[in-house]
Design goal:
By secondary structure, the chain is an alpha+beta fold. It has a single domain, classed as Immunoglobulin-like, CATH 2.60.40. The protein has a 6-stranded antiparallel sheet with strand order 1-2-6-5-4-3, with no helix packed on it. A hairpin with a 3-residue loop joins strand 3 and strand 4. The protein is elongated and about 40 Å long. The two termini are 15 Å apart.
Length: 90
Amino acid sequence: MKSYKARESIAELLEFPKDIMLDTSKITMIGNLQILVENHKGIIEYTDKKMRINTRFGMLEIEGEKLHLKSISADEITINGKIVKLLFSS
């Protein structure tokens, strides 16, 4: 955990993006219609009402209606649909 705190301090000092320096996920929402998850660790569950995505620090659970993958790559997932609920658990 010390190395994490050290990297966090360096990122702040040098004004580097924390998601890159700390190898953590970056989650971007556009309204309640689209969500982009960068630096993910894989999809755990995928239905049109619920998606669970693994991240380095826990599970991101997305609930909604007509959810579907717009795109997926090794480091990015884009999900479209009506997003109703986000839950992040470690």
